[in-house]
Amino acid sequence: MLWSLSPFGEAKLGIPYGIMKGLNSYLVFIVCFLANIMVFPLMMFFLEHINRYLTKWRFYKKSAVYVARRAKTGSGGKIEKFGFLGLVLFVMVPLPGTGVYAGSIASYLFKIERKQAFFANAIGIFFSSLVVWLITVFSTNGV
What is the mean pLDDT of the chain? Predict the structure, then answer.
């Protein structure tokens, strides 16, 4: 669950870790998926309330601008062109640099309505988690 909350792996790391530890694969999927979904409201709270105070520090501000630029270039075209579906597709790709953290930042930067952004992130997380879960289950069972 902690890996799924972490920006260093999200469910893409939490699911294989839990399954490799011998935990029930269905329970691992559910817990990691739900933990990864919990990131969205936490990130939105951070971006809307805490971020503005931290930007007073030069190092944080430079880092935040760098992350914002990466999120815009990585997701901007898809989100601007396809809207909701673009955000779903961006979050859904199980690669580093995509996922709910980047999806939350992109939602914030593009001022996507919160409820719509939540559902887009949740759908993307579900399919990303499903792909990782299927690959992990089939590879650990020797299929």
Answer: 84
